[in-house]
Q: What sequence folds into this?
């Protein structure tokens, strides 16, 4: 049987480069993998940082980004597994709402509008990009210090700096703020392909409790929705120590979701794992 293709959806503040290890791992297993870039994001992070502030980056919108991934999914020769991280997790939820993909995995997902958290770490981490006191025409480049707090708070300083240099790029405030608006809404009661929400216990920018609230919002949906929390992991669990466990769990869940007849509603959350 042909193995399903996989479409990876990267998040805000980074590039598709974050998925390189996953692409290599899953292609070695026989899956065709596609990791599209946001508009004006198809360059090395150092190059994109050197262009800051770039008006082309500032002009990127949520509909334009969604269109990139819609096209990628429709171009697959079979309904793909859709795997997204952070804002890419929200995009994954939106794409599934549009009946795109065989199933979806949303890792440390930005929640749809209406799913809220008042934890200080969430407010502190998101404020610089979402503050209304800065023009949307000014892209936001996350500082190393802020990246250390929001993304890689469990790592030693040298690793934090390496990941910042390898991953972080300027982001469109117009795009980031759209995650709070009408274009990012989902209907939590609507039928859609199966969805797994993954959380990192130590995540500052998207606390695990917020991912759990997102999962609970689907309790009235006829579609199958799972939740899994990884103990001791921060927001960048897709690229830091132990990422292989997260990748393998995501793929095994997705293949089971495709092979198993549809289940109704939100499943009980999985226990913490290391």
A:
């Amino acid at each position: 049987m042909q193995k399903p293709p996989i479409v990876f959806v990267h998040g805000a503040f980074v590039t598709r480069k974050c998925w390189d290890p996953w692409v290599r791992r899953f292609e070695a297993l026989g899956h065709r993998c596609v990791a599209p870039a946001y508009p004006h994001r198809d360059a090395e992070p150092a190059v994109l940082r050197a262009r800051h502030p770039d008006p082309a980056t500032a002009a990127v919108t949520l509909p334009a980004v969604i269109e990139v991934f819609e096209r990628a999914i429709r171009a697959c020769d079979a309904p793909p597994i859709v795997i997204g991280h952070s804002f890419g997790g929200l995009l994954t939820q939106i794409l599934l709402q549009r009946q795109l993909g065989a199933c979806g995995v949303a890792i440390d997902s930005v929640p749809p509008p209406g799913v809220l958290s008042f934890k200080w770490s969430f407010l502190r981490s998101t404020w610089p990009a979402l503050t209304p006191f800065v023009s949307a025409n000014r892209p936001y480049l996350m500082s190393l210090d802020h990246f250390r707090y929001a993304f890689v708070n469990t790592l030693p300083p040298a690793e934090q700096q390496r990941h910042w240099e390898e991953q972080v790029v300027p982001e469109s405030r117009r795009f980031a703020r759209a995650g709070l608006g009408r274009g990012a809404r989902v209907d939590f009661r609507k039928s859609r392909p199966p969805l797994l929400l993954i959380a990192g216990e130590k995540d500052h920018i998207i606390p695990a409790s917020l991912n759990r609230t997102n999962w609970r919002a689907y309790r009235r949906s006829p579609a199958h929705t799972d939740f899994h929390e990884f103990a001791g992991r921060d927001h960048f669990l897709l690229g830091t120590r132990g990422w292989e466990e997260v990748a393998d769990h995501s793929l095994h869940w997705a293949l089971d979701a495709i092979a198993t007849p549809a289940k109704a509603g939100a499943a009980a959350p999985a226990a913490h794992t290391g």
